[in-house]
């Protein structure tokens, strides 16, 4: 109503400017071209009659009015004005016609007449007023033609010629029993167009300046895909509107000059062929939704049954608990007479950062050098396990609480942001806000792509399962230590389950944050799920390191601060990588390599090196530090190899900046170092010929297979937020699993399995030396 009032007011104003002009009412017959002349003193009103005898096909449902001028008008300053009146529906346009962001004037415009409540054409009257304020005579042509294929049928392709001034408007009525449909459009060229789905009401917003103010719309280069529910529209029907637009709306590259379409010397617009098909979509199918629950439920059953059977049989090859069997050895043996469990004053305070006297510091530094000067093959777990286990247990238990705290404070604002984005996309109808795989997007409720959100349930379920496994393992370990306390006092790798619980919680939160990201995926919230991938990788690194260095615990607050620093670097890379990618990547990767080198340098000295005055004096006085002979040659070559690999990866990342985004580069860089550290750990176990149980021998094969399959589906990019929404939709592909899940959903399933079995591998890695004395366990 407001739009109609504005148009009428505009018409009255122009007519008042024209002044005392002559006008006439002319009957016009459909399918016949009428030629007229108007000027400042002459206007024409056309009345559409009901005689359709000239139309070759009289089975019409709608009419399209086509207007064009002879090019002899006053240009943009004195245009021809066309106003259509149909009851309360009023619409207008001008010739020459210049759409927004176009520099070319079009001499022809086509508009589809709108009929309120889908009233029959034969029962509706239509009037067209034509006038101008130009002083000279201006000629024009006008014709009313039936719209072919006005009503679209499901599962049928329809070809249309679409231009910037010649939009196509068609209607679709929901068949009985169909609740949701998908409107798919495929263009013959990579020009830019807009696909709009609007409610059946007048006026039809089919021009560029108004098409985005009604219904759902998206830009399209070669592919468009809109999913529509029956409940959205009042009359269970909707208009499908197509119109071409400026090239720059769809493409991030420089504007490409395109040649407009000329007909008899008249500029009609940039026309291209667009094919449209409408297909019914099954809404929330039961079995595909239950599939993840069944899939992961089977793993629940197998794991818990396996645990129960192993614990009942007390098998040596236990899974996942090795603690039901130990080798009978002499309990009285000690670690070469060395003090194993002293007070916290020796090394505990050193690692907790407590206050020290000068005498204590000298003693501690002397102990540091004692460890540093030992040959790697002579260093045993007894040398690095001097703090009371209860004290260490309290330190490691903080990891789980910090993980929960970070998840809550990070997750709530993230949920608020993505929910606001989703509601904005729903209310505005702009489907360019979120980067979905529109060819496999199943809406449920307020979620536009429920399948991408639901497929993350595996992270949650397997995170809970890992926590259950950890609890069972901890319970058995605690009970056996109480039953055989003297025997278990100094045997096996000291078990601290706080990091295991943190790993399970991080897996749960990875699923939660990935779900939040997929509510409305954009480059603004890409960090939501990758942040917890950094945390998971960091926890794995911490846990593997802690196995052989239990006394050197990393403060959990410092650890999470380190994760935040890595995420901050990634944030800088995301926002500045497009401006100067080489400089940004060189700077940030250099910092990252320096941090890795610092960590592995500390690793070379068994993390016992400390910046203090007494330490420097001892180092200066030690002749070994002046010789060319390496203290720990094996450890040095490990460090050197890792450093070389990191430099090579950094160079590849800089060279390949056009192919891999910076966030993925940093995450890959971080995960690679975790894999290197874990590989060094496994190789060292093999070099020292430590015994293996069955699970850590089988699990690597399973884990590698799962990660290989998962990465295959991950590399099949279905969206790319570095591109424009229209360019990203070119990567969309149909569902690949049960007609409900796409390749990225399969990545969610497989990566959840891979992470779970990776956790189990780390948990059972040292079960083979569960009954070894500390003096026999090497440090590496």
TrEMBL record:
Polar residues bias (residue ranges): 346-355
Protein origin, superkingdom: Eukaryota
Stretch forming the signal peptide: 1-19
One cellular component term from this protein's GO annotations in UniProt: lysosome
Subcellular location: Membrane
Presence of the UniProt keyword Flavoprotein in the record: no
Region of interest: Disordered: 342-361
Transmembrane portions of the chain: 289-313, 398-419, 453-472, 493-514, 526-545, 557-576, 582-606, 636-656, 662-682, 694-715, 746-765
Pfam families, A to Z: SID-1_RNA_chan
Coiled coil start-end: none
GO terms assigned for molecular function: double-stranded RNA binding; RNA transmembrane transporter activity
Keyword Signal: yes
Keywords: Glycoprotein, Membrane, Signal, Transmembrane, Transmembrane helix
Bilayer disposition of the protein: Multi-pass membrane protein
Family listed: Belongs to the SID1 family.
Protein name: SID1 transmembrane family member 1
């Amino acid at each position: 109503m407001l739009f109609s009032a504005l148009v009428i007011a505009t018409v009255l104003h122009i007519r008042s400017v024209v002044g005392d002009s002559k006008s006439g009412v002319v009957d016009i017959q459909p399918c016949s071209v009428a030629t007229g002349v108007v000027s400042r003193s002459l206007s024409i009103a056309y009345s559409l009659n009901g005689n359709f005898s000239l139309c070759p096909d009289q089975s019409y449902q709608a009419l399209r009015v086509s207007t064009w001028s002879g090019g002899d008008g006053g240009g943009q300053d004195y245009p021809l004005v066309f106003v259509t009146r149909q009851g309360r529906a009023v619409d207008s346009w001008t010739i020459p016609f210049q759409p927004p962001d176009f520099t070319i004037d079009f001499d022809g415009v086509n508009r589809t007449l709108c009929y309120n409540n889908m009233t029959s054409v034969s029962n509706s009257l239509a009037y067209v007023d034509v006038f101008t304020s130009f002083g000279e005579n201006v000629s024009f042509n006008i014709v009313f033609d039936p719209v072919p294929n006005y009503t679209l049928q499901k599962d049928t392709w329809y070809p249309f010629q679409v231009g910037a001034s010649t939009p196509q408007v068609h209607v679709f009525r929901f068949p009985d029993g169909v609740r949701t449909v998908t409107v798919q459009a495929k263009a013959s060229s990579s020009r830019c167009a807009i696909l709009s789905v609007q409610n059946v009401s007048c006026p039809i917003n089919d021009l560029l300046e108004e098409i985005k103010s009604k219904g759902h719309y998206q830009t399209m280069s070669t592919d468009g895909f809109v999913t529509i529910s029956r409940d959205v529209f009042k009359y269970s029907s909707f208009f499908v509107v197509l119109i071409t637009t400026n090239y720059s709306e769809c493409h991030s590259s420089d504007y490409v000059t395109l040649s407009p379409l000329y007909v008899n010397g008249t500029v009609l617009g940039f026309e291209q062929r667009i094919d449209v098909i409408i297909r019914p979509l099954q809404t929330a199918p039961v079995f595909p939704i239950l599939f993840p629950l069944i899939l992961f439920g089977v793993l629940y059953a197998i794991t818990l049954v396996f645990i129960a059977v192993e614990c009942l049989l007390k098998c040596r090859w236990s899974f996942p608990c090795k603690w039901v069997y130990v080798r009978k050895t002499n309990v009285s043996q000690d670690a070469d007479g060395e003090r194993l469990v002293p007070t916290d004053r020796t090394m505990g305070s050193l690692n907790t950062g407590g206050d020290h006297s000068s005498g204590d510091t000298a003693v501690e530094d002397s102990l540091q050098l004692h460890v540093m000067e030992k040959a790697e093959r002579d260093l045993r777990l007894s040398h690095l396990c001097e703090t009371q286990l209860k004290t260490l247990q309290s330190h490691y238990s903080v990891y789980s609480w910090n993980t929960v705290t970070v998840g809550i404070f990070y997750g709530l604002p993230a949920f608020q942001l993505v929910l606001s984005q989703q509601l904005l996309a729903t209310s505005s109808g702009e489907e360019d806000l979120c980067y979905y795989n529109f060819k496999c997007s199943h809406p449920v409720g307020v979620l536009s792509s429920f399948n991408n959100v639901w497929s993350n349930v595996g992270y949650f379920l397997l995170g809970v399962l890992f926590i259950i496994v950890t609890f069972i393992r901890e319970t058995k370990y605690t009970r056996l230590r109480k039953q055989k306390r003297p025997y278990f006092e100094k045997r096996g790798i000291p078990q601290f389950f706080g990091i295991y619980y943190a790993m399970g919680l991080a897996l749960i939160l990875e699923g939660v944050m990935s779900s939040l990201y997929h509510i409305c995926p954009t480059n603004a919230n890409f960090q939501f799920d990758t942040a917890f991938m950094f945390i998971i990788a960091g926890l794995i690194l911490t846990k593997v390191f802690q196995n052989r260095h239990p006394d050197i615990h990393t403060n959990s607050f410092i650890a999470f601060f380190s994760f935040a620093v890595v995420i901050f670097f990634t944030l800088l890379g995301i926002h500045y990588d497009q401006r100067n990618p080489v400089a940004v990547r060189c700077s940030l990767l250099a910092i990252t390599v320096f941090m890795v080198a610092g960590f592995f340098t500390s690793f070379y000295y068994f993390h016992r090196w400390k910046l203090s005055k007494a330490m420097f004096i001892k180092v200066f006085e030690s002749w070994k530090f002046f010789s060319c002979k390496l203290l720990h040659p094996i450890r040095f070559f490990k460090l050197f190899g890792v450093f070389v690999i990191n430099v090579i990866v950094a160079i590849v990342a800089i060279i390949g900046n056009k192919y891999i985004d910076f966030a993925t580069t940093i995450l890959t860089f971080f995960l690679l170092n975790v894999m290197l550290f874990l590989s060094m750990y496994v190789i060292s176990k093999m070099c020292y010929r430590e015994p293996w149980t069955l699970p850590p021998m089988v699990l690597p094969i399973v884990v590698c297979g799962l990660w290989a399959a998962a990465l295959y589906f991950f590399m099949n990019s279905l969206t790319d937020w570095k591109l424009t929404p229209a360019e990203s939709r070119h990567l969309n592909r149909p569902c690949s699993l049960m007609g409900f899940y796409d390749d990225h959903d399969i990545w969610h399933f497989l990566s959840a399995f891979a992470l779970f079995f990776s956790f189990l591998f780390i948990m059972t890695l040292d079960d083979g030396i569960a009954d070894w004395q500390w003096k026999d366990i090497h440090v590496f």
